[in-house]
Amino acid sequence: MAAASRGLLARLRHLSLAGPRLPPCRLFSAEPLVSHPDEDGAGEGGGRIIEARSGIMGPDSRRTGVIGVKCGMSAMWDKWGAKVPITVLWVDDNVVCQVKTAEKEGFFALQLGAGQKKEKHLTKPEVGHFRSQGVPLKRKLKEFPVTEDALLPVGTTITARHFVPGQFVDVIGITKGKGFAGGMKRHGFSGMPASHGASLSHRSIGSTGQRDAPGRVFKNRKMPGRMGGVQRTVKNVWVYQIDPARNLLYLKGQVPGPQGSFLFIKDSIYKKPDRTLLPFPTYFPQEGEPEDLEPLVADLGDIDPFMAAD
């Protein structure tokens, strides 16, 4: 015991003489990350004050995404009379729940929360996280990497007007689970002969290997197995219409996931929108702005409706 005590004292003495320690890692901390001017070191570059105000989006700026709920699919007709397949997404009360900065975590990101959930349905660490940040209890959390100029203070509300009609977005979601499926359904195999020469093997995948050499089945062979239930990203989805009054996004085409699932929508990477038209870092409602706004529809001009999303 005496040797252990001497070792502990020597270790503590060494740490005290080594100078100031680095701040601990706070990747999983629930403390607020926005410092106030009256805090120690906030005036000396030790903290960061984030204000909710509009700015100018630069060529390398990266905005946050939003969390949406898939309501289902419908159809609309444009001014040419062409039928447009539509997926309706609901931006359900998106709020910034945490701000991550390079000084604390080593990167810039915003944690968004969507929906509502009762305290009895959350774990104690989750409740403590929301309480410490001073935000309502949320059902879904998602972290979006952003640039430094796109940071938003905790408590900022993100609405459907974060996007503009006519731009392209990337949608991330979990596909519908199909369960265990055969080779014909899972990979589109043609199957075996339907009449002569096949006995109880009409939907079989056929041979999967060779003879004695190599004497095994190669990896990544397309075979029956579990289908669906994986994360997929649909890129370059066209925003056809926005309903600010009901906080709805109308996207052209299909997106992954069943009805009622959560989806993550962000600006497209390949088909970048015109940054002069995007609200940056997000849309801030003006004073006296009416709540029952008319839906905003993309202005196609003379563009062929069938080529709008190509």
Automatic annotation (TrEMBL):
Amino acid composition bias (Polar residues), ranges on this chain: 201-210
Keyword list, A-Z: Mitochondrion, Ribonucleoprotein, Ribosomal protein, Transit peptide
Compartment(s) where it occurs, according to its Swiss-Prot or TrEMBL record: Mitochondrion
GO cellular component terms given for this protein: mitochondrial large ribosomal subunit
PROSITE patterns, alphabetized: RIBOSOMAL_L3
Residues that span the membrane, as ranges: none
HAMAP family per record: Ribosomal_uL3_B
Family to which the UniProt record says this protein belongs: Belongs to the universal ribosomal protein uL3 family.
Xref: NCBIfam families: L3_bact (TIGR03625)
Name of the featured protein: Large ribosomal subunit protein uL3m
Species name: Brachypodium distachyon
